[in-house]
Amino acid sequence: MVGETYAQLQQWGAAERSVLAALAAAPRHAHTHLTYAKLLARNSSRALEAEMWFKRAMTLAPEDPFVRDQFGLFLRDQHRSNEAAEQLTEAARLAPRDAARATAAARALRDARRCRAAERWYAKAAELNPQKGPEGKRPKGRPHTRWKDDIRETTDPHWMQKTEDRTKWNSLEKTFTRRGVLVTSNI
């Protein structure tokens, strides 16, 4: 879309005019509504207007996880943790095989202080993101361990309760690098 190109060039007026023209041409296109909402959201004085456009996009595409995801990120930026958690969790439910969305839902739930639900989504993300070789090929040697197994091995059997202590969990997340291999242990 031309409006997105103008936005990347930081030509905000031209971007807004272009997106509004696209909306006039295709008023039922949810992703155009999202583009306009994101364009408005960059200006804090237009946050309410941006929220209205996000909601219109959700009305047009209620089963689209991308729409929920983008609205959830907007709400998170507005410091509305509970509402962001609801939208990001719904995005993860609509895309049940997407590990990144499951992780985003877990983080949003943790930010909203809903630790039990966050634990479930972190577990789901770990299930969805096992370390494995290329599709259709069995790697030589010992099978790769899963991220969940690495955490369980280096911490204790109750590692999921660590999500309740936000600073400890953040430090644990930062220790896992290079595709889930533990570099140091802070627990």
UniProtKB/TrEMBL annotation:
Protein's UniProt keywords contain Membrane: yes
InterPro entries in the cross-refs: TMTC_O-mannosyltransferase, TPR-like_helical_dom_sf
A GO BP entry: protein O-linked glycosylation via mannose
GO cellular component: endoplasmic reticulum membrane
Record region (Disordered): 126-150
SUPFAM superfamilies registered for this protein in UniProt: TPR-like
Domain of life: Eukaryota
Entry GO MF terms: mannosyltransferase activity
Keyword Transmembrane (UniProt): yes
Keywords, comma-separated and alphabetical: Membrane, Transmembrane
Name assigned to this protein: Transmembrane and TPR repeat-containing protein CG4341
Naturally occurring in which organism (per UniProt): Eumeta variegata
